[in-house]
Predict the structure.
Amino acid sequence: MSEVRGVCRPATDKAHSGLGRKARPIKCDCEDGHHRKRTLTLAGDARDISSMRKSAAPPKSRPEVTFALQLPELAACGFETAGLQSMHHRTHRSAVGMVTRGRLWGKQRRQRSHLASQRKRHAHTSLDVTRRSDLNDLATPELHADSGARTRTLTRRDAWFFVMPTLFVVSTILGAVRWFSPVPFWDMWEHTVRFYADILDGRWSAFLDQANEHRILISYALFWLDYRIFGGVTVFLIAVNLCLMAALWLCLCMAARSLVGDQRRLFILCCALLAIPCFSWLQSENINWGFQSQFYLAYLLPLASLLCMASWMEAPRASRRIIWAVVLAILSAFTMANGLLALPLLVVILALGRRCTWRRVLYLIAVTIATFAAWTYHYSAVPHQSAPLKRMVEFVLIFLGGPFGLIFHSLFIAMLVGAVLIGACAFLAVQWLRGRARHPVYLALILFTAYVGAAGAAASLGRSAYGLDTAISARYETPILLLYSAILLLFIHLHRAKAATVPVVCTISIFIPLVMLSTQLDAIGPTGPEVARQKMLAALALNAGVDDREAIGRIYPQNDAIHIELIHQIAASAIAHDVSVFALPSMRMARAWVGKPVQATELVPCLGSVDAYAPLPNDPRHFQFRGWAFVAPTRRVPPIAFIVEDSQVIGAALTGIERSDVHDRIDHRATHAGFEGYGSRIGTGPLAVYCPRDDEGA
């Protein structure tokens, strides 16, 4: 049964003065789900309602009482139920107001209305509310027996709408495994490897170092945990990225519950649909790059902060929610530079909400100023190349339409979608200004879309000079996919009462996954293992001190002479501290055995050959070797092979290259027996392939 709570007072107007003391109606001041004031009339006297209790310190002239009635009892007691059906079923109100709980579906509503009309004919005067069990006995048994069945709104056919979201989630997790590499990539060399080396050297102030123009204090803490506990091979960081993706999805589901939770089927379909953009492989660079936890946090924390504030505005007595909103907004500032906007957005939502007071606004402004002051302490501005205003505008438009640009390989389509997106956001904001939607979560999502747009504008200031193609980089797709999800929820909220809304959501649930499916399948394609192998080859070059710029460019794209020297210095520091990828057994064996006589090592001959070798263009002292290796007794491919010349170990190579010829001639398990590595020639003698013993190579 749905329960209604509120506060009532006896009527004092002259229109009811002739009804007598025992027949005086009771007027109840309430609010519906749209925050509109309503006055409902209860036929009866407050003295006859024994379950009512007097509210604290009521005015003597108009004593007030509180009540808690089942919805059929309201009609039986004479409530004017006009507008009652539009009230939000989960709205929580303060002392003067009411809360409705439960769901009123069409058939159930008609049955209850019919039941209430029957009760009205039998009860025209006062009714003792304490005899609630007697009222429930009047209901037909069929009404109670079928209530559970009517709440199961999902059908068997709706299960098909969970197939594609499940595929996206599973394929993304498998993609994170297949694309995994323990080798740091790009910014990780400076801000994870060198950062932890500084910590080992006792410079704890490295936690406060800038990462370009950002303060990434939270990510630094995660990097420290990864190196301190998990060896710095980024397994922990990739797992954190997946967890942050799930947290973003949960936040959007919470927003959907607030906006469309009164329609269970629509809510569940929305949750399933939201899993597709949240776990899309379009953001692959953020998924398999351990450095990108700060990118997820820069949007997770502001979104959670806005939702906490909106939740507090719905239930102001839950004071912990506003505290959490402020804490999350403060933490947002130490994820990325755009996280500084989280606190000003809290000020805006508080000022536009119904719970605004000058004291709260001033407190929040003070916290904002203090956070900005802490963030700018010892801050060094990072210079960026400027770009014309036209290019910056184009960059923002392409940034907003990035997913479509990646899918259709067209910057024009991305720009067109970006323009449409700006128009959609403006339309949704106008709907709130006109009062069509006043839900606090609606306002929170509107402000979140503004936050993403501001992040795109900030990115255009520093990145548009590098070309418009950078606007559709995979790492930028995370905020844009969140933006699409927020806009979808806002439109669904506006049209949730229409009969066509659920079919439209079902259609979108079919169309969107099909459009994104080709990109999603890349997660489980053959590209991932090959990319991981090439990164390990670059790490082997750094481990041997070899200047192979083509290979090193795969893990540090800025492969000019200055940056190559920088990354070699960072690698030497990591080798000295025995951390990161250089602490793996294969890298340790390469450092320990290359340059020594083969008798002084634990190497044994194995099947294989060196098919080709050539000096490196930028480092003629070193050679690049290609060939294959296979351990026949154990019928396995060793992870690392060694090149021996005249009983001297001259080089090391990593296996993993597909060799169909070895598969056909030697063993079907030797498919990936091909290797590639580095070494130095000491003469012109024959080259032999050696492998570690079984216990070392495993």
